[in-house]
Design a protein that fits this description.
The protein is α+β, with helices and mostly antiparallel strands and 350 residues long. The chain contains twelve helices and 14 strands. Helix 7 crosses helix 11 and helix 11 runs antiparallel to helix 12.
């Protein structure tokens, strides 16, 4: 760990983790990614100093979980897996923001490498976008806007507002790595391939030989030349914005049939040709106005959508320097939300 940071207070014995997961039983398993397995578990409590109190008996499956165990998969204990674990541990001990997942502890024991994180009850944004409405209820336009604002504020913090002028480029923003809490507050949960940018390096870039991340979310300049900047995160977030407004993931076959680059390329073309309504989630069009009379700027809630689409389009510009900063993105998304707030106020007094 850099800076000689003392993390002893965050260490959790392996036997405690095995206890609450019944030795990593599938009963408690949430799922797998390329490098991690995720488990839900319960603890008695954790206080403001993040001191955890584990249950003395087995986990109780019918009680709501309070933590997530993020375990490097046994088959991925290679050099890259080790680097990802250390990077994520370092990043999460440096950040403190309401829209970034809270690290509660970690375990490095025997061959195990484990992070203990707060539990986010609604799960991945990607899963939520692909579920049927009758399973989860409608994800309203207002909820979608607030989710996007949460993530935008977290990215702005990473890029410009950290202590000691630290700068973090996440490099892996996508809807799989954005999780929702029980109030639909959104949090960034993945930092395994994130990189620190040297302080006072505004406009500078890192040039990386190994290009990591999911292709359909990847900044074209980074994908082509390994040029990593804050604007690389802006691009990835722009793809997420279009996922949110389309109600489909960026690698949906519908988009891949039109372009190997997925949603971003399709969204750019639709925006430029005035056919963007063709890919907007029908549920949003129904909420904002009839599909047959879908005209942007016709009333405040359509102004909200128009503002959202314009900033989303700017985020996915192919050239890095043509993209807005996250500060601008936050302001425009808040502006989009303000149209809805104004509309509610008008309706209240009519």
């Amino acid at each position: 760990m850099s800076q000689g940071k003392n993390l002893e207070h965050l260490k959790i014995p392996l036997d405690h983790i095995k206890l609450v997961t019944d030795d990593f039983s599938d009963t408690y398993k949430l799922g797998d990614t390329a490098y991690y397995s995720f488990y839900s578990a319960r603890i008695h409590h954790f206080d403001k100093d993040q001191n955890l109190s584990f249950a003395k008996g087995k986990n109780v499956i019918d009680e709501p979980p309070s933590i997530v165990i993020k375990r490097i998969r046994p088959d991925r204990l290679d050099e890259q897996g080790h680097e990802m674990f250390l990077a994520e541990l370092e990043m999460l001990t440096c950040v403190k923001h309401p829209s970034i997942v809270t690290l509660l502890g970690f375990c490095v024991e025997a061959s195990e490498k484990i992070l203990v994180l707060e539990h986010l009850f609604q799960g991945r944004l990607s899963s939520y976008l692909t579920k049927k409405v009758n399973e989860v209820g409608p994800l309203t336009w207002e909820k979608r806007l607030k989710i996007c604002i949460d993530v935008a504020q977290a990215l702005n913090y990473l890029h410009y507002e950290m202590e000691d002028q630290k700068i973090i480029i996440n490099r892996n923003i996508n809807s799989h790595n954005i999780w929702l809490d029980d109030n639909y507050g959104a949090k960034i949960v993945e930092f395994g391939i994130s990189r620190f940018m040297p302080p006072n390096q505004i406009g500078e870039a890192l040039y990386l030989k190994r290009k990591l991340g999911l292709k359909v979310y990847m900044d074209p300049e980074y994908a082509l030349r390994g040029k990593l900047k804050r604007e690389s995160d802006v691009y990835s977030f722009g793809v997420v914005l279009f996922e949110v407004v389309c109600g489909k993931l960026a690698d949906n076959p519908i988009f891949l049939e039109e372009s190997q680059d997925g949603l971003a390329d399709v969204a750019r073309r639709c925006f430029c040709t005035g056919t963007i309504e063709d890919i907007i989630d029908p549920m949003i069009k129904e909420e904002i106005g009839s599909e047959n009379s879908f005209i942007l700027n016709a009333q405040p809630n359509k102004d909200s959508l128009d503002t959202f689409l314009k900033i989303a389009y700017q985020c996915i510009a192919k050239i890095q320097d043509h993209r807005p900063t996250m500060e601008v993105v936050v302001m425009e998304l808040q502006k989009a939300l303000s149209f809805l707030v104004r509309l509610k106020y008008i309706h209240t007094y009519i």
